[in-house]
Amino acid sequence: MAREDTRRPPATLHDVAREAGVSLATASRTLNGSTRKVNDEYRARVLTAAEALGYVPNLQAQAVARGRTTTVGIIVADITDPYFSQIAGGIITATDAEGLVATIGVSGRDPEREVRLVSALRAQRPSGIVLVGSRVADAELTSRLTSQLRDFEAEGGHVVLVSQAGLPFDTIAFDNIEGAGALARRLADAGYRRAVVLAGPEELLTSRERTQGFIEGYAAAGHPSPSLEAVHSAFTRDGGYEAMGRLLDQDGERPDLVFAVNDVMAVGAMARLRDAGLEPGRDVAVAGFDDIETLRDVSPGLTTVRLPLEQGGTTAVELLVRRAAAPSLVRLPAEVVVRASTPALR
Amino acid sequence: MAREDTRRPPATLHDVAREAGVSLATASRTLNGSTRKVNDEYRARVLTAAEALGYVPNLQAQAVARGRTTTVGIIVADITDPYFSQIAGGIITATDAEGLVATIGVSGRDPEREVRLVSALRAQRPSGIVLVGSRVADAELTSRLTSQLRDFEAEGGHVVLVSQAGLPFDTIAFDNIEGAGALARRLADAGYRRAVVLAGPEELLTSRERTQGFIEGYAAAGHPSPSLEAVHSAFTRDGGYEAMGRLLDQDGERPDLVFAVNDVMAVGAMARLRDAGLEPGRDVAVAGFDDIETLRDVSPGLTTVRLPLEQGGTTAVELLVRRAAAPSLVRLPAEVVVRASTPALR
DNA sequence: AAGATGCAGGGAAGCGCTTACCAGAGGGCG
DNA sequence: CGCCCTCTGGTAAGCGCTTCCCTGCATCTT
């Protein structure tokens, strides 16, 4: 069957108006919301015509005519990563509850690409951009990103950052430091003394905050762990696996606790432990961060810090819609979740 | 700091042309790709002006003027589910490699909502729609969906379905039946005799195919399992957990193998087994489907069927771009992955 | 009863862009 | 040297829609 047989361009408002025997203005007013009232009979005729022609308004044209869009641009580092997909889920749900269109770009954890994506997104003249960051401590990149975002705001757009505070835009920040700190205090109190942090990439801010929070927490508990060190690696499962391997290859006493800065890395670390014939939890306690849904049933259950990821997404959209006068910062609390991977805590 | 201080609308092509002292047409031709050649000096002036003004073309306006967009609409059931997020990842990567804009909608596994999303998407006049389905065996819904999609194609759009064959559109189908069949044959040969299928929702086509493939595979192995039954439940972790519970509550001999129609359900089932004091793998073998990345390190390792999910996404975009004359069907192969959760297989 | 007021429809301008078409310049050719 | 072709810049007509503004009519006011 040839597919182009019945090709026929979509009905326009003009078509509807003609069909209904009214003016373009009237058709527009009845179909696409206006403060103006239109006569019930006309209204009915327009509605019927629209239905008959299968009219669907052309959003692009509306955007051009109105001078604003209902689009929200989302940028995430990696949609495949449950951390991002949960936040993105929240954003998408919230956007289409607000009748907004969500456009998505994936930076692949490449800050350069992130900057380019912002610029590409701006071409769509979205009403807002939500950047779910893997922000990085690099002054030059940060300044390029900031300047792109500033330009966008100067044009009337609205930027919301999810994840990292410190930039002059509306921000949803998760309590990384506090969460990691609380976890550390409890672990320290429970008696773990040779803790190691699987810290992710050195320049990644999320990693840094969690590492820092954890170390400070240990100190605050009055049990500064002299051997407390941070091993850097990729922010992924493989990163966790590989870093754990390096740790095991080292001489000296084996750690009694490994804190990975995210759950995915923790799972990688657990796999590496098993490959070395060690039982995670029993031989080496493991803790993670994020409380990723998909990972809640790993065995032994992973002690972690829960973040309201989805809520972060929805809150971001709220901020976008209710556009405050000055940049605001919403902090979302973290909560320690104790499971079997840190037996001393039970 | 008030944010609106320096508010200034984005530069238009008109601004650029004026700044460069050339006509609109020339500016358009140099900036936004055209077959027409423009004088090097003019070109340079336009480029400089554009740079100076921070000009970013207005995609909406281009779309209106050109009568076509570079947008691709994506509809998935649940971006939080790793199955969908991996496919979506493939789609997004491929779209922006092609310079297309990806717009995303989430149906929440509600077929009604899916139909509405298609209709909403059409308002954006995307060049294509990729529907990553949880298609369902309901004639009325299917026909409404089909008719929406048909209308869209009649308008010159292009539809690609990922997941379920059988509708008159380009389709990427995973080898559910063959994959489940191959898995079943191996398990049957390995000696499992009291197999049960955790089958997901009765009306979900993916569930059906996998269940059917598995049962047929068992029969084909010459070991028709008389007790082989299918227990229905939600397609989620909780569905797996709950169905496993029902199974355990039943009288009679305990199954020696549970095949869940996806990994997430399998993990739920494993959790339920543990809660009942049973050790997955040892006491009851477990197998899943999808080989979700995040779940590759669960313990015991989950025997499953690997699907090239990301590739499915990229292939979908390829189909979209190279728009064939007649609907084509691309089948993507499944591959059995044996791990520790089915010890008899090792 | 006559002007004032309110109300809803329609005409048309305009959003930012593309592109068909026109016009002028330059070059090649017989 | 005139003709025609080619080449490139500009003009202006749209694309599908919104919305300002005008108009005619019904209603109100005194």
From TrEMBL, chains A, B:
PROSITE patterns for the chain: HTH_LACI_2 (PS50932)
The keyword Nucleus is assigned to this record: no
Domain of life: Bacteria
Annotated HTH lacI-type domain residues: 11-66
Keyword entries, A-Z: DNA-binding, Transcription, Transcription regulation
Keyword Signal included in the entry's annotation: no
PANTHER family according to UniProt: HTH-TYPE TRANSCRIPTIONAL REGULATOR GALS (PTHR30146:SF109), LACI-RELATED TRANSCRIPTIONAL REPRESSOR (PTHR30146)
Name the record gives this protein: LacI family DNA-binding transcriptional regulator
Organism: Gryllotalpicola koreensis
